[in-house]
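Raw record, unedited: Tripartite tricarboxylate transporter TctB family protein
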Amino acid sequence: MLKTMNRKISVVLILFSAGYLYLSYNLKEYPYVPVDSDLVPKALGFVLIGLAVLLFFDKSSEEEGEKKKRTVPKKEIGVMAAVGGMIFIYILLFEVIGFLLATALFIFFCSWFLGYDKWVSNVLVSLIFPSALYYLFNYLLQIRLPQGILPF
């Protein structure tokens, strides 16, 4: 049954998403909000289960080329660890300095670290994208994101 790596991974993903869905069904419901806090987690959980089932029934065979694709070069491990560290710092700063600043700094420094050299477009994307998301969540969906040190 679990002959290929895709099937093994899909079983793990199905178990993970089942636990995730269990926890998302235990989220507190709020009676007077237009979009409840459990909508997105439930949708993501069901999408993950669906994709894991599709992965389980994937007919692609595992060839030698596929096994080589899974091998990560040693120099890439340092890059992945650095990006993981940036994600950890982002999580730590998220509540302290707020969504807008933490996300802008994360996008800017992560894309710069990964080799994107166009400073103007990097600055514009790292400012416009989090601002649009902040406006969407806070004012249109009325889901409050951490404002941090900013007054709005």
